[in-house]
Amino acid sequence: MMLLAVLPSLVTAREPVLPDFHADPSARVQPDGRLYVYPTRDPIGARNWKGMVEWPVFSTTDMKTWTDHGVAFSLEDLTWAKEEAWAADCIARDGKYYFYFAAAAQIGVAVSESPTGPFKDALGAPIIKQNEAGIRWMIDPAVFLDDDGQAYLFAGGARKLGVVKLEPDMITRDGPFQRVEMPEFYEGVCVHKRGEFYYASYPTRPEGKDSRANRMVYSMAKSPLGPWEFKGEIIDNDSHNVHGSIVAFKGNDYLFYHVQGPSNWERRVYFEPIRYEPDGTIQPLAKVSRTR
């Protein structure tokens, strides 16, 4: 465990939160009251995303000083996938922590008694396989636990999204994996609830060979299964892609996201507060400068 340097004015200044290169930050407040970030790790000098092999964990109590807890899980811990340790999510339930991750275009689940791991592959196989419900790019898992105790696991990419209900043990599927109609969805969904509304935030991408998934947008619904109504942009990170999450911490909601670093494949994690209008919609954030 290592304490990282205190960064000034993190809530308002757009400064990288984590050292080196990380992306796809899933931010979660766990039962101990700390805010944890579960990102992916981009290798230094990378020129593609094939070399991503592990999932680290960082945490904070004040969003200024961050603790590096090391690697929580890696491809070495798997028997069914050996490449592409991509976006993950982690949630607590009944004293255990459930880590959902993408590897080789499939979704797995690992379990630990600590929010920092080490995690152990719970099934020895994917919980969601490639091509279920017609989704080839089975990536970017996002778990959502509703107020009534029902858990939902979302996953998908390349404009196709699906969801499956989970049993209380969080590793057994309660029914089939089914497609979700999400307006302007491209990849990287995150689902949270505030008041009576459910929010799905995700990158969008225009059609076209040279388009980028650099704009994070959102939809709202009265149920985690929709129907979802498109509401607009949250942020443009002015990068090749964006991926992130929204978390409530100590009275404020924050958007965690990544931006392009020295290259498209060496990314940095940022965060900033978000605000809501009286009708529940999210106030758009200013476009991010690419000077970083």
Helix content: under 10%
General shape: globular
What is the fourth-level CATH superfamily?
A: Glycosyl hydrolase domain, family 43
Strand content: over 45%
**Which strand order do you get reading across the main beta sheet?**
1-5-4-3-2
Structural class: mainly beta
CATH architecture: 5 Propeller
The tally of domains stands at 1
Unreliable stretches covering 5 or more consecutive residues: 5-13
Mean pLDDT metric: 94
So what's the CATH class?
A: Mainly Beta
The number of distinct β-strands equals 20
What is the helix/strand order? EEEEEEEEEEEEEEEEEEEE
Estimated radius of gyration: 17 Å
Cα end-to-end separation = 27 Å
Report the total helices.
0
* CATH topology assignment: Tachylectin-2, Chain A
Biggest β-sheet description: 5 strands, antiparallel
Oligomerization state: single chain
SSE order and pairing:
Layout lengths: L1 E2 L18 E8 L5 E7 L12 E7 L5 E9 L10 E9 L2 E8 L2 E7 L7 E2 L20 E4 L5 E5 L5 E6 L11 E3 L9 E5 L2 E8 L10 E7 L7 E8 L7 E6 L2 E12 L2 E9 L18
Antiparallel strand pairs: 1-5, 2-3, 3-4, 4-5, 6-7, 7-8, 8-9, 10-11, 11-12, 12-13, 14-15, 15-16, 16-17, 18-19, 19-20
What would you say this structure looks like, in words?
The chain has 292 residues and is mostly beta strands. It has a single domain (2-6, 18-274), classed as Glycosyl hydrolase domain, family 43 (Tachylectin-2, Chain A, 5 Propeller). Helix content is 0%, strand content 45%. The chain has no helices and 20 strands. The protein has strands at residues 2-3, 22-29, 35-41, 54-60, 66-74, 85-93, 96-103, 106-112, 120-121, 142-145, 151-155, 161-166, 178-180, 190-194, 197-204, 215-221, 229-236, 244-249, 252-263, 266-274. The protein has a 5-stranded antiparallel beta sheet, with no helix packed on it. Strands 6-7-8-9 form a 4-stranded antiparallel beta sheet, with no helix packed on it. It has a 4-stranded antiparallel beta sheet with strand order 10-11-12-13, with no helix packed on it. A hairpin with a 2-residue loop joins β18 and β19. It is globular. Residues 5-13 have low confidence and may be disordered.
